[in-house]
Amino acid sequence: MADGKEASPRRLKGMRGFVLLWAGQFVSIFATRMTNFAITLWAWDMTGTATGLVLVGVIGFLPGVLLSPIAGTLIDRWNRKLMLALSDAGAAISTVILLILFYTGKAEIWHLYATSALAGAFGAFQYPAYSAVVTTMVPKEQYARANGMRAVVGSASGIAAPMLAGALLVVLDIHQIMLIDLATFGVAMLTLFLVFIPQPEQSLESQEAKGSIWKETLHGIRYILDRPSLTAIFLLFTASNVHAAFGYPMMTPMILAKTGDDSLILGMTRSASSVGFLVGGLIMSAWGGPKKRIHAVNLSFILWGILGTFIYGPAWSLPFWLVGSFMMAIFNPIINSAYIAILQEKVAPDLQGRIFGLEGAISTISFPLGQLLAGQLADRVFEPALVSGGKFAVLIGPFFGTEAGAGMGLVIVIGGVIAIINGIAGYLIKPIREIESILPSFKTDQLEEDA
After folding, report:
1. Global pTM?
2. Among 276, 256, 254, 273, which residue's Cα sits nearest to residue 264?
């Protein structure tokens, strides 16, 4: 599957190749979303607590965070197409294991934790590899649009997937939905084979840093620390993943608790969220973001909190959940597309694997920790405190209610407050506010001179 210097005449390259790769991912992720929805319902039925449900995500997330620095370095050293295939194969293997367990009727909740950890370990390659691939496949002025398209992949696949999965579960078992998922994995692998993904030319800095995996990983750390703007924005996104952890993981258990496990309503709110992700991704795909991309990041943090969580968290009816979930979702691809485009423009392509790998570890380590904190706050503090007669029932109850799910709604709103603080901090901290003028843009001809 290795790509050489020249593209095979039968393989698509450039933006056309990226679009084909994008299409293959869409098909695969659509089916994976159906599987995840079915498993979420099963896990909720098994545990019945917010902590038990988010623990699946935490365990799946941690291996990727811990391994991503090494994965990023390997992406810079090895063939990037092979790294993408490895990431996809890991997800398929975990699905095969679950398929066998569900088919034989032996699946237990700890099996879900184990397979989530396995998929997360292989998934450590996905974010840095795809982020680095964009740089070598599309022109610099198309970075934000390509990142917007990447956001569309996940969001568009989620519009119908939850509702379709909910409908299919009436006539199909979970293991049959998993079979569909595995079939689409083959489609993703085929499109990956059909595209040409260039390997980046070596920059002078990359050549000077060559050595062992540890040496090159440490070089990535020094690269970040030597650039205060990179350090600052990575820390900003570390904080932003706390508000994300207080928001997104609580959405599903809150709806299930407030509706008495109504999978149809859950599917509708998830679909509304996916529509929001899709719209946000389409906006960035067509627009590319403002000239100063950091505005898209900071303003979207603030609007995510005000227009999203403040509507969704306190609500007790479907219309408000639909609006709130849509607004929480629409700003996410705008934030990420602009943020990744900034890094892609400022970091040499042959260093992007290790930098995105380290960025993933630094900024996202707070997400699983935030999930655990949010789950504990919901289950042990705010849920019991907001029930009728609880400590907060009189003071906060009129805004959030006093029935099951009210405490989870409060946790979501706290996430929104943190998001607003993050957006304001992004404007107050100069290395973040002026990152695009402080850091020089990487020039493509620099690669050619250094090669």
Report:
1. 0.72
2. 256
